[in-house]
Design a protein that fits this description.
Layout lengths: L1 E4 L3 E5 L2 H7 L4 E4 L3 E7 L7 E8 L3 E8 L2 E7 L6 E6 L6 E5 L3 H14 L1
Parallel strand pairs: 7-9
Antiparallel strand pairs: 1-2, 2-3, 4-8, 5-6, 6-7, 8-9
């Protein structure tokens, strides 16, 4: 997975195996659709898998129904912090991604969002 930040949107590119596992393609998210961005420590999540792959405590990849909302999760072994994107008018209410550099990306995104 690769996250690319542009002036007006961000792109989450999934590789072929990730697309198959998630039953979903890559994301294009305009900054106007992002309510908040933050990094949080890894934790267990509970939700109903709608589409994707779930190997408990190992891999959660795809669309999940949690907190009465549809969310996209890509978490692995919970070695790294989660990057959480809270969205307002997108297909998902949240996108949760486990990344080695989630704090840096959250900081960069928040700077870009402040400019808007």
């Amino acid at each position: 997975m690769k996250i690319i930040l542009f002036d007006d949107h961000l792109r989450v590119n999934l590789n072929l195996l990730e697309k198959i596992g998630a039953a979903k393609g890559s994301f294009y998210i305009p900054y106007d659709d992002i309510v908040s961005v933050f990094s949080e420590s890894p934790h267990s999540q509970s939700g109903l898998k709608i589409a994707g792959t779930n190997l408990p405590r190992i891999l959660e990849l795809g669309t999940y129904f949690a907190d009465k909302q549809k969310q996209f999760w890509y978490t692995k072994k919970r070695k790294y912090d989660f990057l959480v994107l809270v969205l307002k008018s997108n297909f998902y209410s949240k996108i949760i991604l486990e990344l080695a550099d989630s704090k840096e990306i959250a900081s960069e995104l928040n700077k870009l969002l402040e400019k808007k």
